[in-house]
Amino acid sequence: MARMKFLCDADRCIECNACVTACKNEHEVPWGINRRRVVTINDGKPGERSVTMACMHCTDAPCAAVCPVNCFYTTADGVVLHSKDLCIGCGYCFYACPFGAPQYPKVGNFGSRGKMDKCTYCAGGPEADGSREEYEKYGANRLAEGKLPLCAEMCSTKSLLAGDGEIIAQIYKERVMKRGYGSGAWGWKTAYRETIES
Amino acid sequence: MASFGRLIRLAFGACALLLVIMAAPASAQQVNPTASSVKEQQLLQELNRIQGRVSIPDQRSGVLEQPQGREWREFRNVTLRWIGGVAIIGMLAVLVIFYLTRGMVRLESGRSGRTIVRFTLFERFVHWMTATCFIILAISGLNITFGRPLLLPLIGFEAFSEWSQWAKYAHNYLSFPFTIGVILIFLMWIAGNLPNKVDVAWIKRGGGIVGHDHPPAYRFNAGQKMIYWIVVIGGGLVAATGYALMFPFYMSGIEGMQMAQIIHSVVAVLFVAAMIAHIYIGTIGMEGAFEAMGSGEVDLNWAREHHSLWLDEEMARTGPNDQTPQPATAAAE
User: Fold this and answer.
1) Hey, which family's this protein in (chain B) (predicted)?
2) Where is average pLDDT lowest: A1-15, B66-80, B102-116?
């Protein structure tokens, strides 16, 4: 089985926000929630760099470990998903997540954060693949259709790669070899406890 | 003139060409356009978090990476369970052993049948409102830490989620009457709970429950004062940190909420352990103690044995409550 991962080649990210827009549209993500966002560090200064980030679908995911009701599960492809039927909206995954992925539709309203929402790697949720209930709760299930996440598919510079970890790492290594530089796979050490040697 | 202009243009062109040729070896040899850009590991080493600007409305999502969630996870899943388990099970064990060896602390002189008012209706109302809230808050809070390993395997995912959802709502909403209760307890009993010299002697003689003795005490003895300050300080801490978690981002970012959760949970489990001891002494641990918070009136002999100085004060002020003799209980013992 594949081990699905995201890889942002930060040397190519131009902060066009196509990934953000693609994600919002594909899954009809509610207003106020962004499953993916582009962060620009040192914006407008020398040394500026943009990185796109969503749920990294960590190995030994912290969100799953701290969830009081154990609503997370990891698919055979290594995608970390959760059940909105089991989620109680306590906010613990959101304290544990290194990437700020979990979000709540009603953050700020005491007592009721609502069900947590995060990137599904375009793999839906526990409901039947492609069902109406699945789409309403989690968005499209592209993986079940044999397609990769839309954010990476739509990336205008092919900065964002999605797919089996070994394959996208290989693509990245070849790029680094060819162009002669690379800033590493952002977030990989935190998410997967490994980096790509280049 | 035209030929001169052409000459100048030619000279400029030659210069430009020369520049390009001279620069060419360097650019063909892979220039890194982002060489001066920030690096992930360097940023993480400097600040342990990476933050930037986002163009979406949610500015809090500008935090790109903050790996300290790992330490918080270790605390929540391992450290806290140890602290809570040792504190609560340890306290229960100590109380069981204590009860088996010492038993209930009896009224040595029996009941007099005459009573004196110890807590007014308002005081009892505040106590029981806070106590009821506390018990529900404690159970629903312990569920968040211990429910997944202990209760979930017994009742299954759906039932456990349903129960936890209601427990969370109860936890959030009952925090308000609980906080009001703690504030009222602080205000209405502060006068009797300031430590004084009598407490030192009381502690030296082991109090009324550890030592087989009845050291004098005013309205609250040193043990009760300890419970009072645990409630006021512990209650204040859990309330403040609890509201920081209930209203995310009003007071701090994620790292502040992790810290708030750590303080909230550690204080809470110690609080629960202390309250188990309080409940023990107030019920099966000591004869005649429950009435103080039950009917509000205690037997004169109980008051004389446990709060002699307070009784003297009260007697000087009003005298015992002769209107409600209790012959039934007077006959017992």
Assistant:
1) Belongs to the formate dehydrogenase gamma subunit family.
2) B102-116
DSSP H stretches of helix in chain B: 2-28, 40-47, 69-74, 80-102, 121-150, 152-155, 157-189, 197-204, 222-229, 235-246, 254-280, 290-293, 300-306, 308-317, 327-331
Please, is B276 exposed, middle or buried when counting C-beta atoms within 10 Å of its C-beta (0-12, 13-18, 19+)? middle
Task: Provide the pLDDT for residue A190.
Answer: 92
How far B69 CA lies from chain A's nearest CA (Å)?
A: 4
Beta carbons of B32 and A180 less than 8 Å apart? yes
- Supply φ then ψ for residue A166, to 5 degrees: -70, -40
CATH number of the CATH domain containing B269: 1.20.950.20
Contacting residues of B for A42, CB less than 8 Å apart:
37-38, 52
Task: Tell me, yes or no, whether B239 lies in a domain.
Answer: yes
Nearest CA in chain A to B170: A111
Q: Is residue B60 situated within a structural domain?
A: no
- In a domain? residue B15: no
- Does residue B123 lie within any of the structural domains? yes
Q: Are A141 and A129 in contact (CB under 8 A)?
A: yes
Structure tokens belonging to residue B130:
């806070």
Of all residues in chain B, the one with the smallest CA distance to A13 is B34
DSSP string for residues in A138-151: H--BTGGGT---HH
* Rounded CA Rg of chain B: 34
Domains annotated for chain A, with CATH where assigned, are 4-192 (3.30.70.20)
- pLDDT at residue B333 in the model: 37
- B203, B211 Cβ separation under 8 angstroms: no
Contacts with B69 (C-beta within 8 Å, 6 or more apart), sequence order: A62, A95, A96, A97, A98, B254, B258
What residue has token string 């456990």?
A: B160
Number of domains in chain B: 1
Residues of A within 8 A of B145 (CB-CB) are 68
Q: What is the pLDDT of residue A72?
A: 97
Which residue in B31, B63, B148, B161 has the most chain A C-beta atoms within 10 A of its own C-beta, making it the best mutation to test that interface? B161
Q: What is the ipTM of this complex?
A: 0.90
A76 vs B: CB within 8 A:
no
Rounded Cα gap, residues A61 and A74, in angstroms: 9
Residue B296 is part of which domain span? Answer: 67-331
Work out the number of other CB atoms within 10 angstroms of the CB of residue B48. Answer: 12
Residue A40 has pLDDT above 90, yes or no: yes
By mean pLDDT, which of A107-121, B190-204, B239-253, B293-307 is the weakest?
A107-121
* A135, two tokens: 């789409």
In angstroms, what CA-CA distances link B307 with B134, B216, B277, B290?
27, 6, 20, 15
